Amino acid sequence: MKQSFKQLLKSYYYQLPKNLVALRPVSPRDGARLLVFDKQSSKINFDYFFNLGKYLPPNSLLIFNDTKVLPARLELFKPTGGKVNVLYLNTVVGLVEVMSDRRLLVGQKLRLTKRLYFEVVRQSGGSYFLKPPGQAKEFYRLLQRYGLTPLPPYLKTSGLKESDRRRLYQTVFAKDFGSIAAPTASLHFTKRLFNNLKKQGHQVCFVTLHVNLGTFASLKEGQVRKNKLHNEFWQVPAKTIKAVAVAKKRGDKVVAIGTTVVRTLESAFNQQADCLNKQGSTQLFISPGYRFHIVDCLITNFHVPSSSLMMLVAALIGRKRLLSIYQKAIKKKMRFFSFGDGMFIR
């Protein structure tokens, strides 16, 4: 009998004590705790992130997402004076696509400052398309000056000031602006940890996947039915393509740092050419039954119940084992979600 959508969500649900939701990262970042799970032996070790090198397979290839989080939330004002919060999603043919917490009307002008206005051009589904003041390519500069860094709903009570958000909700190697959420598994890495791992003989490479709204949104029945998630843009540089090819030839392990890297590498894999493509967009939904082509190991955080991210991790180790690991992490009072502790699956 085919499992219903409600049954699917229920099968990935777990109860988490509120005090285990991490509202701020630890300092230094690599002082976070680390759960290490061995797929072959099912053995679990508890340690600290700065000791990651003890558990990595020899000559591992670590791949990170170098996307940079935009201060993507803007406070605008209607002609009536009412405040509107919009979240930037994308740029489409000179227009900026946003989500709004208020109903907007086509033709309406929304004020950012006394001189800067956005015009509502059209609506499509749950998105609005706004004409920005000036050129669309200058929009990122407006976000840098006036925007606020969006945080997941469970971090609304964190009390972080905008200056702290921009500093803490960003990886130390962030490069290319485009995300509305951080690749959180990478938040544990410090320059000190990078240097130590390189000295141990591990290689570091990067990909880019700009994290979109799907990170905040709950899984929808239609996504499960179509086996497709939200659309996200990715790029794989030539250096990373070469490094993956060499690692696979040698039998070295490819370690994805975060679920965004998993989606990038698996989406980039060209089965006919047996190599990685350079760029594209993905709606890849990874869940149990998926056959991994590139990724051998995964470093990730502890995810929100009933999420597509949990299903991705379950594709590596199985749903029952994943839920059992989560219960052990809860018992050990590990910290969960974006600013929480990490897990290494090897």
Written overview of the protein:
The protein is an alpha/beta fold and 346 residues long. Helices cover 24% and strands 28% of the residues. The chain has helices spanning 5-11, 139-146, 162-168, 191-199, 221-226, 238-250, 259-268, 308-317, 319-331; strands spanning 33-37, 44-48, 61-65, 67-69, 73-77, 83-92, 95-100, 109-111, 117-124, 127-131, 176-179, 203-209, 228-235, 254-257, 269-270, 275-276, 279-284, 297-301, 342-345. Helix 8 crosses helix 9 (319-331).
Low-pLDDT segments, ≥5 res: none
CATH class of the largest domain: Alpha Beta
According to CATH, the homologous superfamily of the largest domain is QueA-like
Structural domains: how many: 2
CATH topology group of the largest domain: QueA-like
Order of strands across the biggest sheet?
2-1-19-18-14-3-12-13-17
Mean pLDDT rating = 94
Q: Main β-sheet, in a few words? A: 9 strands, mixed
Number of strands: 19
Overall geometry comes to globular
First-residue to last-residue Cα separation: 33 Å
Residue share in β-strands: 25-35%
Q: Structural class of the helix and strand makeup? A: alpha/beta
* Number of DSSP helical runs: 9
> Could you estimate the helical fraction of the residues in percent?
10-25%
If classified by CATH, what would the architecture of the largest domain be? 3-Layer(aba) Sandwich
User: What's the alpha carbon Rg, rounded to whole Å?
Assistant: 21 Å
Q: What order do the SSEs take from the amino end to the carboxyl end, as H and E?
A: HEEEEEEEEEEHHEHEHEHEHEEEEHHE
